[in-house]
Amino acid sequence: MAATLRKIHVLDDLKTKYGDLLWVAALDVRDNLFSAQPDPYRAKVLPPGVPLLAIEAGASLGWQSYVGPQIAVIGVNTFGASAPGPVVMEHYGFTVENICKKAHDLLRQIEEKP
To answer: How far apart are CA 55 and CA 28, in angstroms?
Structure first.
């Protein structure tokens, strides 16, 4: 899973629950810093062929260049939500339960492809 720095608390909960089964890379794709890195470095952080679930509490726009058959994004592509932080995060699906569901859905889709 990959996330921008604002979402690490959700990933910490997942890491506690799943331990070594989960690999987390925290990066910000919007500033193009990651894209500017050499290919070997980028492949170390986001290995090709490994399913990736990106978690972006902002617009998922920056993840478009990484989205492919083994990549999915949980993001917020709307404007105007107003509520206490935890309520908004739950509304947009930034919960352990929803992230696990999306990860399982992604893996199921990959297994079903010929």
So the answer is: 11
